[in-house]
Amino acid sequence: MDETIDLITEEVLAEEADTVEPDLHTELDDLRAKLEKAERAAREITEGWREFTELYPDADISTLPDSFNAALERGIPPAAAYALELRRREVEQIKIARAYRKAREQSFGRIESAEDSLYSPAEVRAMKPAEVRKNIEKIRRSMKSWH
Q1: Which residues in 39-78 are b (16+ Cβ under 10 Å) and which e?
Q2: What share of the chain has pLDDT > 90, as a percent?
């Protein structure tokens, strides 16, 4: 009887080994795939920040708005997110310069001061080519004061 129990036990253990072993291989393969995915993601993050520091070595990311962090969370590389924020700021400056120029044109009078005699970089970028040609001397004087 003990022999029969031993044979049955061996058969059950063999069957369990056959069913468990493929599960272990599948689980190991799944874990390897997850590890490789995590390693790729870590390399991409590291590469993204390396690229950022190469392109923008003097960048102060502490001054950036929440939209920069939101872009990073969406998977946008840091350098691209930073360039996007720089462009947004530039566009905002152009809008301000245009609004200022429009208000100046519509005003009844103008108070002349040292600041009024110079253009900002944003004002010059917002000018049409004809305006640049018309004001080229004033633009050149203004450029000397740009940092």
Answers
A1: eeeeeeeeebeeebeeeeeebeeeebeeebeebbeeebbb
A2: 35
